[in-house]
Amino acid sequence: TQELFRQSDKMKAVGQMAAGLAHEIRNPLTAIKGFVQLAEMQLPSKSEYFTIIKSEIERIDSITSEMLMLAKPNPSRMKVMDLRGVLKGVSQLLETQAILSNIEIHCRLGEEPGFVLCDENQVKQVFVNLIKNAIEAMKYGGAITVTVCIDRDNAEIVAEVKDEGCGIPEEQIAKIGQPFYTTKEKGTGLGLMVSYKIIENHRGKIEVYSEAGVGTKFRIRLPDAGRQRLNS
Ligand code: ADP
Ligand code: MG
């Protein structure tokens, strides 16, 4: 079993630059998309070229949208939320995709609310990334377990996403979260970097426990906002 803690200022510059670049790429890309559509209508005999062009544009599009998430959360979008609700929503969202891969998502969200101060969309994005990776790691099906609990000693809400997939070899663990590190043919290698950045922006931590051939567990720790809520 491997364990990994992230340094809080790692790749700060990379993140800020990436978000800025992504923003600049967005607008021209939208224009290109529109004109490619028009061109395709005029050149129906070249449809095989357009298929490639469109799929490559989609790729740029998914890379830029992942990078855009690197921007700091806007303080006005920060709300105290029950993390259980966020996780329930994300699990439901990915349920169909999971079933198609013969995977069950089990939610063990506990009796007590886990209040965190967060930008809902960004935190959702983190768990979408983690659960998607879990699905993609389980070629032969299996179970994903999603849990939320309160760590009172550390005043943290702890969420876990555990899978029974291929696992991550020990020597690869250090590469997790580095930009463009991917072992997938169609991967971007940005999902985890973005997730680390988002959790860091929320003053949280991500820990990874993995064993090749057995499975992987991602643990997210976020400051408990429950007490803050009672006091205010
Ligand atoms: P991508 O999914 O596009 O490859 P990510 O940043 O989401 O990019 O993940 C980077 C790499 O980390 C993956 O390609 C995979 O090798 C590894 N990885 C992430 N999550 C898991 C997991 N749950 N099980 C096994 N490997 C994983
Ligand atoms: Mg991914």
From TrEMBL:
User: Where would I find the Histidine kinase domain in this sequence?
Assistant: 20-226
**Presence of the UniProt keyword Cell inner membrane in the record:** no
Keyword check for Transport? no
Record key words, sorted: ATP-binding, Kinase, Nucleotide-binding, Phosphoprotein, Transferase, Two-component regulatory system
Question: What highest taxon heads this organism's lineage?
Answer: Bacteria
Q: State what protein this is by name.
A: histidine kinase
**Where the shown chain sits in the full protein?**
378 to 609 of 609
